[in-house]
Amino acid sequence: MSLALAQLETAELGTEPPVEPGKTGLVALIQELDGQRQAGADVTLGAAIEQPDARMHGAAILLMALPECIPLPIPSFGAILGVPLIGVSAHLAFYGESATLPSKARNIRLPPRMIELMSRYLIGPLGYAERLSRQRVSILASRERLVGVACLLMAILLLLPIPLMNVPPSTALVFLSWGLVQRDGLFIGIGMGIATGVVLSLMAIADLLASLFS
Questions:
Q1: Which residues of the chain are modeled with pLDDT < 50?
Q2: Of the residues 15, 26, 64, 187, which has the fewest C-beta atoms closer than 10 A?
């Protein structure tokens, strides 16, 4: 009865109802992680992605790429999560989503500040993205190893000290991993397009620099 009254009140106010405890999805996951942070618990990557029917590699890549993709008021976590991001992407490329993440990757501690600010700034946009997502374009959604190869390339570029180049590859990573988690081939296709654009742009810049100094 209380839940029905709460839903009626939120409908009358024209606001979105809160995510129910136990509800699946990245929004609920981030809220749960923030609750663990507030309780003073260390949050590891393995604990964060252990969900029923979860695509663990996709969820891990998404959590590590989001802070670099969206301009949050936080320092770059590339030095902390860059190498694990490459490791998880490579593991996905070789073994697909059916394999369990290695213990070293599962034991990575997620920075509390990152969890706090993701909870504060990303709940709304991610909730909207979840409402847009559905299982579709299965020919892309099922190509897990191909997604892993693209994620690996973007993760390597993200780790390189290239000025002003964090956002494009991290955006590609977010779209690719989001599509993998949601089994949404449309998002994977957009991520592949962004990744292709990043590579072509870097090749064009390299060619331009080579012609200037030759």
A1: 1-24, 52
A2: 15
Measured torsion, CA atoms of residues 105, 107, 113, 116, in degrees rounded to the nearest 10: 90
Q: What is the DSSP letter of 109?
A: B
pLDDT in tens, 179-201: 998 889 999 999 999 999 999 99
- Chain centroid to CA 33: how far? 15
CB count, 10 Å around CB of 141? 21
How far apart, in whole angstroms, are the C-alpha atoms of residue 13 and residue 25?
A: 24
**Phi and psi dihedrals of 171, rounded to 5?**
-65, -45
pLDDT tens-digit map of 115-145: 888 888 888 888 888 888 888 988 888 889 9
DSSP annotation string for 137-175: -HHHHT-HHHHHHHHHHHHHHHHS--TT-SHHHHHHHHH
CA of 80: how far to CAs of 64, 108, 172, in Å?
A: 10, 9, 19
Q: Is the pTM of this model over 0.85?
A: no
> What is the residue whose two structure tokens read 């991001």?
85
End-to-end CA distance of the chain: 75
- Name the nearest CA neighbour of 105 among 62, 45, 174, 49: 45
